[in-house]
Amino acid sequence: MAVRIRLARRGSKKRPFYAVVAADSRRARDGRFLEKLGTFDPLSESDNLNLDMARVNYWISVGATPSDTVGGLIKQAEAAVAAAPAA
Questions:
Q1: Which domain CATH number covers 44?
Q2: Which domain holds residue 31?
Q3: Sign, Cα dihedral of 37, 8, 18, 65
Q4: What pLDDT digit, counting tens, does each position of 17-75 carry?
């Protein structure tokens, strides 16, 4: 089974909202998935990305491949964590 980390569309017409999921690559875009890893809201001005980086890193470590879009979102989330001041 080839696992992909990809976006699954949620939301209504002209109001997109996406769930970041780990899913079998043979399944439909909005079909059954293995685990929900976060959310992405492209219309939100702030805090539009919410990812559970521990679970994302786990899935990548066991062989899941992120889609091109999710790969960019992961880099964006990692940059935000690195730029945040350590508390």
A1: 3.30.1320.10
A2: 3-83
A3: positive
A4: 999 999 998 988 888 999 999 999 999 887 789 999 999 999 999 999 999 999 999 99
Q: What is the 3-state secondary structure (H, E, C) of the chain?
A: CCEEEEEEEEEECCEEEEEEEEEECCCCCCCCCCEEEEEECCCCCCCCEEECHHHHHHHHHCCCEECHHHHHHHHHHHHHHHHCCCC
Nearest to 23 by CA among 40, 12, 9, 41: 9
22-41: b (≥16 Cβ within 10 Å) or e: bbeeeeeeeeebebebbbbb
* Tally of domains in the chain: 1
